[in-house]
């Protein structure tokens, strides 16, 4: 049987997957409304929930977010900055790209524990309050960014969300090996 040479990566996704937006959207430009982003994200999540159940859909979104965060960090962020400068730079990138208003609530430089908040989050601000956190993609994005910067695997959990009635999203991050001890 014909067999393809085994040279492909497990995943073909990378920053290059985005393509050349400048070249491809000379008149439209790089921006589009938040509703279009949410239509895509929520319709996709709904289909994943229907086909695989809620738990699996959340896991898929979180893992996808992690790949996205990792690629974003490695292609947009300056990973050589000292930690506090890096966090300020990250806030700036979130703001400049309308992702949300990022704040660092707590950071423990010896353990790596971090608490971040995102106000006016692109994913959830303004959603109906259901009592459940919905930003699993963002959990992944933040863990991917923190992992790219620290070279340590991070677990990031959203503890407050617009959808829980909190008005902002709050994320707690921990280095993975530490909580598995
Ligand atoms: Zn949220």
Protein described:
- This protein is α+β, with helices and mostly antiparallel strands.
- It has a single domain, classed as Muramoyl-pentapeptide Carboxypeptidase, domain 2 (2-Layer Sandwich).
- Helices cover 44% and strands 15% of the residues.
- The chain contains 6 helices and 4 strands.
- Helix 2 (34-52) packs across helix 3 (54-76).
- The longest helix has 23 residues, at 54-76.
- It is globular.
- Zinc ion binds next to loops.
Poorly predicted runs: 3-8
Class based on secondary structure composition and strand pairing: alpha+beta
Number of helical segments with 4 or more residues: 6
CATH topology: Muramoyl-pentapeptide Carboxypeptidase, domain 2
Oligomer class: single chain
Could you give the distance between the termini? 47 Å
Number of domains: 1
- Mean of pLDDT: 92
Sheet with most strands? 4 strands, antiparallel
Computed CA radius of gyration, to the nearest angstrom: 17 Å
Q: How do the strands line up in the largest sheet?
A: 1-2-4-3
The ligands bound in this entry are: zinc ion
The secondary-structure element order is HHHHEEHEEH
Strand content: 15-25%
Assigned CATH superfamily: Trafficking protein particle complex subunit 3
Cα shape: globular
CATH architecture: 2-Layer Sandwich
Helical content (DSSP H or I, runs of 4+): 40-55%
Level-1 CATH class name: Alpha Beta
């Amino acid at each position: 049987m014909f067999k393809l040479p085994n040279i492909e990566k497990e995943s073909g996704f990378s920053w290059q997957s985005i393509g050349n937006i400048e070249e491809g959207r000379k008149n439209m430009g790089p921006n589009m409304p938040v509703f279009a982003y949410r239509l895509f994200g929520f319709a996709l999540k709904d289909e994943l929930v229907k086909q695989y159940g809620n738990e699996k859909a959340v896991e898929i979104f979180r893992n996808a977010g992690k790949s996205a965060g990792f690629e974003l960090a490695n292609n947009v962020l300056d990973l050589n900055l000292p930690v506090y400068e890096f966090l300020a730079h990250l806030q700036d990138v979130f703001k400049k790209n309308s992702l949300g208003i990022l704040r660092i609530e707590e950071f423990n430089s010896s353990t790596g524990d971090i608490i971040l908040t995102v106000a006016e989050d692109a994913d959830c601000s303004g959603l109906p309050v259901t009592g459940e956190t919905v930003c699993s993609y963002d959990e992944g994005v933040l863990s991917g960014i923190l992992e790219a910067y620290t070279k340590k695997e991070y677990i990031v959990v959203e503890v407050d969300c617009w959808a829980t009635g909190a008005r902002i999203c709050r994320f707690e991050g921990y280095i993975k090996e530490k909580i598995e001890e």
